[in-house]
Amino acid sequence: MAHLADTPVLQTERLTLRAPQSGDWPAWRDFAASERAGFIGGPYDLRGGWRSFGHAVGHWVLRGFGSFVFTFRGEDRALGMAGPWYPADWPERELGWTIWSPENEGRGIAFEAVTAARDHAFRVLGWDTAVSYIEPANTRSVALAKRLGARRDDQAACPGHCNCQVYRHPAPEDAP
User: Is pTM beyond 0.85 here?
Assistant: First the structure.
C-alpha cells in the first residue's frame, strides 16, 4: 500500500501519532457516516466521507503538515485524529481533533494527542498562535479546549461556513 513519506511520527506515553494511511479508511468511513461527525460537517455519505478523508491526506502534501491519526502504542487501530489544520479558506491555523468511536471518549487520549500535536505545531512548525473552531453545542470539545488552556477569543473570525466559537491556545510553555 502507498503511504505518505517523510512525515513525522510522534510518541506519547500511550499513543503514536502518524500521518493518515489507507488502512485508516474503514474507521474514518464509519465515523464520518455517523452522527458523531455532525460537528465536522457530517454525517457524510460514502462520497462525502471519501472526499473528506482525501482532504485529510492531501493536506499533508499541500501544506507539509496535517492532522495525525492516533493509535495506542504498539497497535495500529485508528482511534481518532488530532493536529494542525489550515485549509485554504480558514482564517487562522487550527488545532483540531476527533475521537472516532464513543468507547474511546473519557479516557484522556484526545487531551494527550492534542497536547503532542500542539507541541509539534509550536516547536517544530514554528507556529506562534493556534485556534480551535468549535460549535457551541459540542460541549465535549469545548471542555477539552479549556482543559488544554485555550480561551475564547470573540474577536477572532470563524471559517465562513460554520457557526463556531474560537478558542485560542497558549504556547506549550504557557499551557496548564
Answer: yes
